[in-house]
Design goal:
The chain is an alpha+beta fold. Helices cover 34% and strands 23% of the residues. Helix 4 runs antiparallel to helix 5.
Length: 324
């Protein structure tokens, strides 16, 4: 038979491993789907082959207000708009159409715009009524960025800007390379150079570190970044996040032929089969044959325990390498 390359062919493989079609496997199709999904979830959580390092590129967005009709007058970039009911205020970053305008953040984060607010431009005097579903908050106002469900761990946010020690000709690093690099290979020692580089790196971290503190939980699907969003990022700029991503079986169907996943899913289905037969334990069939679901259940439990121990000891990534 061909190697399994889809969920259906994977289920067929597991059933053949248990004896189908020579013997009947007393497991419902929905139970099969549940056990396969459970096996994939465990494999993605604890097996190194199920994840990959990934650099996520995210475009920073700002907030957008949409009015129910074309505004009375023309809003102007840079002016402050005020909500007539809410009292919320924001500075316009751009006007994209007669019904849409964008801003980075609220003047007071505790006072937000409301649906139905009549907004008024402080300079132009233009007015407009915020439509239903007319408030779309962006990254800068939210103070976090959305993360898709395939991301399991976030390692760090890559530096948003250059360190103090850049590569221009007035930089200390540039001068060291210019004047001292010639001596390193002939009469000098690398020790002094390495110590100088480490000291400059320490100064960068202490005086002007661009390393961001982050908070990530995969079930919230958001990455909070603790920084001054109003000053450190601009709309339409890109942020790069180093993270760990699970391999999606919908895209990479080769995972259904993974050796460990096939063994683990088969053991889970076998345990389900035994559990289904437990209620018939001791029942005599014609000819004196008796159901032995208990033996199937116990054998499968032992196989699952050994396989899970194998994954945790041999295949799991070191969790200390991840943060967030």
């Amino acid at each position: 038979m061909a190697a399994p390359n889809s969920k259906d062919t994977f289920k067929d493989y597991c059933l053949r491993q248990l004896g189908f079609p020579v013997i009947e496997i007393n497991v419902d199709d929905d139970q099969l789907d549940d056990r396969v999904d459970e096996a994939i979830q465990y494999w993605q959580t604890y097996h190194d082959d199920a994840t990959e390092k990934f650099y996520l590129k995210h475009k920073v967005t700002n907030s957008e207000l949409t009015t129910a009709a074309a505004s009375n007058g023309t809003f102007v970039k840079g002016e402050t708009i005020t909500g007539g009911t809410s009292g919320a205020k924001a500075v316009i970053d751009s006007v994209t159409s007669t019904t849409k305008l964008r801003y980075n953040a609220l003047v007071d984060s505790n006072i937000a715009f409301q649906v139905g607010d009549v907004i008024t431009g402080g300079t132009s005097g233009a007015t407009g009524t915020i439509a239903a579903n007319g408030i779309s908050k962006g990254d800068i106002e939210n103070r976090y960025i959305p993360i898709n469900s395939l991301i399991t761990d976030v390692v760090r946010v890559m530096p948003i800007r250059d360190d103090v020690s850049s590569s221009d000709m007035f930089d200390v690093r540039y001068q060291i390379h210019l004047h001292d690099m010639y001596n390193l290979g002939f009469m000098g020692s690398l020790a002094e150079y390495v110590m100088s580089m480490e000291y400059l790196d320490l100064l960068d971290k202490v005086i002007d570190s661009d390393q961001k503190h982050i908070d990530f939980n995969r079930h919230r699907n958001t990455l909070e970044i603790f920084m001054d969003w109003d000053e450190e990022v601009l709309p339409d700029e890109y942020m790069v996040i180093e993270c760990i991503r699970v391999i999606d079986p919908a895209t990479y169907t080769d995972i259904y032929n993974d050796y460990y996943l096939k063994k683990y899913a088969t053991a889970l289905i076998k345990r389900q089969w035994g559990q289904n037969l437990l209620k018939f334990e001791g029942m005599q069939m014609p000819g004196g044959v008796a159901f032995n679901g208990r033996q199937l259940f116990d054998d499968a439990k032992e196989e699952i325990t050994l396989l899970e121990e194998e994954a945790r000891l041999n295949w799991e990534r070191p969790v200390d390498f991840f943060s967030g």
